[in-house]
Amino acid sequence: MPASLKHIHPGTPMGATLVAGGATFRCWAPQAKSVYVLGDFNQRVRDDAALLTRDQQGHWRGFIPGVKDRQRYMFYVVGSGSEGPKRDPYARELESPFPAECIIRRTDFPWHESGYVTPPFHEFVIYQLHVGTFFTPNLPRKGGTFLDVARKLPYLAELGVTALQLLPIQEFQTSFSLGYNGTDYFSPEMDFAVADADLPAYLAEINKLLDAKGLRRYQAADLRGEMNQLKALVDLAHVHGLAVLLDVVYNHAGGDFGDQSLYFFDRQNPAGGQRNSLYFTDIGHAGGLVFDYSKPEVRDFLIQNAKFFVSEYRIDGYRYDQVSVIDHDGAPHGWRFCQDLTSTLHAHRPATLHLAEYWGVNPFIVAPTPAGAGFDTTLTDGLRIAIRDVIGQASAPDERSLNMAGLAKSLWPEGFAEAWRFVQGPENHDIVYKGREPRIARLGDPSNARSWFARSRARVATGLSLTAPGIPMLFMGQEFLEDKQWADDFVSHRDLLLHWAGLDQGDKQMLDHLRFTRDLLALRRRLPALRGQGFRVTHVHDQNRVLVFHRWVEGEGHDVMVVLHLANFTRVGYRIGFPGSGEWREVLNSDAYENWINAGVAGNQGRVVASEHALHGFRDSADMVLPANSILMFTR
């Protein structure tokens, strides 16, 4: 007799699910001849009691009595091309190291009910980081982990960002990775977990964070395994007022599949081509294969994955990798998959942010269904390209004109009705990866990334990103003047790790830039215009290297004027139009952060006075001092 069908019904979850007295198992293998489940609970004996029963949709399912939490298991699939073990595509956790067995896990976790609420979309400020390289106190023995990121949460909360965007954390089989070659979508990356033997020291550090908030401590058992450690990171982020976004790769999988992965899951004959691989098409991308969106089961696998992390891990949103590949290489079914994905997730949890990466930029990605794909916001590259162009051109040893008009045009990309519909920033994991483009500081002065030229231009670049329309995004280290590219391989490229030691040892230049970023983010929180819809470029001058724009809250005011100046000398008596007469406070002057507090600061002594002298589309204007390579901000 095959395994019991007790507790089996049309809604039985995929994968392994603990129920009273045992666990249900379900997998999709339509072309398999037979499927068994083998594990600690049946001594891995392949007999009739381990045999699952196939339904008309090609799902194999059954109930195994006596299964307990944290027991290991595998599916054993007999197909037309081969037979052997397969990991559960829905496995919540994997055993380390590879080749790994799956681990049955309860879904419970001692969450702290802190009352945290995901912020409204216009209040997002995203900090992008790679778990394995962000903070690495245990090198060379081990790279960074979820709990290492958690230890930096007070720093990140004090910085003033509102959301952490983790590069992909789903299990990948290589030792080092950006994460875009994942194979096990429901299982967090094993390398990002702290082993049981190392937990006591981490437990003490993590509990200090809870003590500081007056909250209940974790027990050691609460943090065992990568699943609970990722949950702890999300839990602690929420305790510190930070959202967590996951970077998910629904356009392709793999690059290093392995025989026990979901590749050729029902073990069809590989002579039939890649389309016999069940989950994939024969179209390659980034070393892997594009998902087959024509199959309802594949679409459901990915949509259930997105729902899973929202429900079980309480994450606040997603960055969807290369949606343009889903649309183009997944045609004609990819666009409909995107619509199904966003519609399902919006209904499941409306507050969740859905950020698409789509090249070239396409406003229909953020248009509601059925006309659009239904994502909330999308990455844009116009501001990044434009600001990197003017910063790079400014580094030339002359006073050439800069394309400030092009920079102005990039501030609000065409086709977007709301400012929060696009995400922008001068650095990200792709651009400043090793061998690609330089960090902003080095772009500002290729000969010396710590010179005054580099520091002052980096302040302008970061300042523009945080005052311009759109959801701003910082890449790890940008906030403290990191001037090196980065790499995921922290063994071969240890020299490219973030220079935390500089902050710890009091590096004045790093601390001053960090202060600048913190203060500007505090202003962004305090001044609603910087998060509002009102925006207009009021003055741009390529030869003078000046750009001025006006931010406000529609129907309310709260006017803010932002002035960029990228000449290498101070201008005196430069007249700027203002939306109103009287005193305007200079609430930001980036020159003050040069050797904070800069005793020789050039500026306006904290204020300018606008009088009736029409200019730049306003009735009033004011003379001011523009420090060299600076960003200024005025409000009433």
* Radius of gyration based on Cα positions: 27 Å
Second-tier CATH architecture of the domain at 533-635: Sandwich
Q: What share of residues is helical? A: 10-25%
Shape call:
elongated
CATH superfamily of the domain at 533-635: Golgi alpha-mannosidase II
Helical run tally: 14
CATH topology of the domain at 533-635: Immunoglobulin-like
**What percent strand?**
25-35%
Overall pLDDT level: 97
- Give the beta-strand count: 30
List the strand order in the largest sheet: 10-11-14-18-19-20-21-22
Uncertain parts: none
Largest β-sheet summary: 8 strands, parallel, barrel
Q: Span from first to last CA?
A: 80 Å
- CATH top-level class of the domain at 533-635: Mainly Beta
**Structural class, from helix and strand content?**
alpha+beta
Your description of this structure?
By secondary structure, this protein is α+β, with helices and mostly antiparallel strands. Among the domains are: 15-86, Immunoglobulin-like, CATH 2.60.40; 533-635, Immunoglobulin-like (Sandwich), CATH 2.60.40.1180. The strands form 6 sheets. It has an 8-stranded parallel β-barrel with strand order 10-11-14-18-19-20-21-22. A hairpin with a 3-residue loop joins strand 24 and strand 25 (557-565). The longest helix is centred in the C-terminal third of the chain and has 19 residues, at 508-526. The protein starts with 14 loop residues before the first strand and ends with a strand. The mean pLDDT is 97.
